[in-house]
Amino acid sequence: MFFTCEVTINKGRDALIKQWMDVDSFRFWQEGFQSFEMISGEYGREGAIANIWFRLKGKDMVLTETILVSDLPYEYGGRYDFNKMSNTMYSYFEELGPHQTKWTADIDFSETRGVLRWSVKLFPHVFRQQVQRRLEEFKEYAERYD
Q1: pLDDT at 122
Q2: How far apart are CA 41 and CA 82, in angstroms?
Q3: Would 17 be classed as within a structural domain?
Q4: With DSSP H G I counted as helix, E B as strand and the rest as coil, what are the percentages for the chain, rounded to 5?
Q5: Residues 44, 67: contact at Cβ < 8 Å?
Q6: How far apart are CA 73 and CA 112, in angstroms?
Q7: What is the total count of domains within the chain?
Q8: Helix runs in the chain, H state only
Q9: How far are the Cα atoms of 1, 107, 108, 138 from residue 122, in angstroms, in the given order?
Q10: Looking at the domain assignment, is residue 135 inside a domain?
Q11: Tens digit of each residue's pLDDT (9 = 90 or more) over 83-93
Q12: pLDDT of res. 112
């Protein structure tokens, strides 16, 4: 399943990217974020691998992130794996003006297993809404804080 989400943020691209890449800010805009651990490579660089821990609905979840493309401030892409699915997300940042940036995210849930396989087919809107909510939460955070 492939879809695109986007949001326009009232912040210049360079300042926005600085906030977006700040691991310490993840807890403010990524629901359930617990911690981040580099496994190999250098944070934010192609080939880097990290584990990201979340706690959602009382359950712990670990995502393994592998950076596929790192061409900031223009593009950033990664593969995200956990035991029931794998997906890729490519983010594009378009400067609309000195104080406005459009973030477009292309997401592909390419590998799903078990119950998630059917959930993706039966309820694709739920997955899209979840990603769109994350973009909106970042927008709120980015516009509120410097």
Answers
A1: 59
A2: 20
A3: yes
A4: 30, 50, 20
A5: yes
A6: 30
A7: 1
A8: 13-20, 26-29, 115-122, 124-144
A9: 11, 17, 16, 28
A10: yes
A11: 778 889 999 99
A12: 58
For residue 8, what are its two tokens?
């326009």
CB 65 within 8 Å of CB 47: no
User: Residue 132: left (phi > 0), alpha (psi -120 to 50), or beta?
Assistant: alpha
Query: Is 52 a member of any domain?
Result: no
Residue 72 is classified by DSSP as: T
- Range of 133's domain? 2-30+71-144
> What order of strands is seen across the sheet that includes strand 33-40?
2-9, 100-112, 85-97, 75-82, 59-71, 49-56, 33-40
Specify the pTM. Answer: 0.89
Which residues of the chain carry a pLDDT beneath 70? Answer: 111-126
The candidate with the shortest Cα–Cα distance to 2, out of 94, 112, 95, 143, is 112
Task: Flag whether 49 is in a domain.
Answer: no
Q: In CATH, what number is assigned to the domain containing residue 131?
A: 3.30.530.20
146: nearest Cα among 108, 91, 99 = 99
52 vs 33: CA distance, rounded Å: 8
